[in-house]
Specification:
By secondary structure, the protein is of the alpha+beta class. The protein contains ten helices and eleven strands. It folds into two domains: 2-151, 2-Layer Sandwich (Ribosomal Protein S5, domain 2), CATH 3.30.230; 156-283, Alpha-Beta Plaits, CATH 3.30.70. It binds adenosine-5'-triphosphate and L-homoserine. Belongs to the GHMP kinase family. Homoserine kinase subfamily.
Length: 292
């Protein structure tokens, strides 16, 4: 038997759609696997009633198939599904690490990214790897056609999750098909600024680089209260605020000592918009941990 804790993640960070990802210290899924001739899945924890146990519909089933590693798999969900916090990816990344150990497959964490991304293809229609990569590797990750680049970084964060459900599949449907050259140039500048900020543990540069004129405005329309919550967080000491992944969670990068104020401001602003929410005061975290 093998047990793995795999963290929530925040993808895109505004300017890095389908490219940037960040591992969060909390929340996390815990995955337990045992050898079996056929894959079977049980699920407990946050939002488990909405998660299919059919291996053909659960991200961990796709990972077991991709690795040719059938197993009895138990998922204890800490990351709410359809949250924008990489819920489906946390399970997939955890299963990839656990099955790799269970069957002594000898794959590196980088090699497991593609197998874990098969789970994302199952639920959202595309094998985007910007959540599974940070859940496997920790820190800040950049996905390109050539693979993954990872850097460790240290930032204090608030991930505020409203009681709204937005599926990644739906949120991909509202993105414009094209972007102007002006918007592309602005996005490239912001993304480069953000990446430099990550290497310097600099919340000001990271926050400055989170703006994105194309994908985020389209998705913000799916989140009641988005503009007010973002403004409140910035006034309370966030350097940047954007939609986390496909939403509905919002990610705020915080100045030193401002995490509590930012979390409170975001919850209050959602409340004013008639939306209940909870805020994770967290930091950039490590990748999945194998326990036994
Ligand atoms: N192991 C799993 N954990 C969570 N959701 C799963 C899992 N397997 C299948 N699903 C399905 O995937 C969907 C949730 O995935 P989705 O990508 O929409 O949300 P998310 O992972 O929280 O978001 P994001 O990728 O934007 O951070 C739900 O329909 C859920 O039933
Ligand atoms: N990059 C993906 C992350 C969500 O899974 C998206 O924004 O659709």
């Amino acid at each position: 038997m093998r047990t793995v804790r795999a963290p929530a993640t925040s993808a895109n960070l505004g300017s890095g759609f389908d490219v940037f990802g960040l591992a969060l210290e909390t929340p996390a899924d815990v995955i337990r696997v045992e050898r079996a001739s056929e894959t079977s899945i049980t699920v407990t924890g946050v939002g488990s009633t909405y998660i299919p146990e059919d291996p053909g519909k659960n991200t961990v089933g796709a990972v077991a198939e991709a690795l040719d590693a059938p197993a009895r798999i138990h998922i204890d969900k800490g990351v709410r599904p359809a949250s924008g916090l990489g819920s489906s990816a946390a399970s997939a990344a955890g299963a990839a690490v656990a099955l790799n150990a269970l069957y002594d497959l000898g794959r590196s964490r980088e090699e497991l990214v593609a197998a874990a991304a098969e789970g994302e293809a199952l639920v959202s229609g595309e094998a985007h790897a910007d959540n599974v990569a940070p859940s496997l590797l920790g820190g800040f990750t950049i996905i390109t056609d050539d693979g993954v680049t990872q850097v460790d970084t240290d930032l204090s964060l608030v991930a505020c999750l409203p009681e709204i459900v937005v599926s990644t599949r739906d949120a991909r449907g509202v993105i414009p098909d094209t972007a102007s050259l002006t918007d592309v140039a602005s996005t490239v500048g912001n993304a480069a600024t953000l990446a430099v900020g990550m290497t310097r543990d600099d919340p000001e540069l990271v926050g400055q680089g989170m703006d994105d004129p194309v994908v985020t405005p389209a998705r913000a329309a799916l989140i009641d209260g988005y503009d007010a919550v973002r403004t409140s967080a910035l006034e309370a000491g966030a350097t940047g605020v954007t939609v986390s992944g496909a939403g509905p969670a919002l990610l705020a990068v915080c100045r030193e000592g401002r995490q509590g104020a930012v979390a409170g401001a975001m919850i209050d602003a959602f409340d004013d918009a008639g939306v209940e929410s909870r805020a994770y005061q967290t930091n950039v975290g490590d990748g999945a941990v194998l326990y036994d």
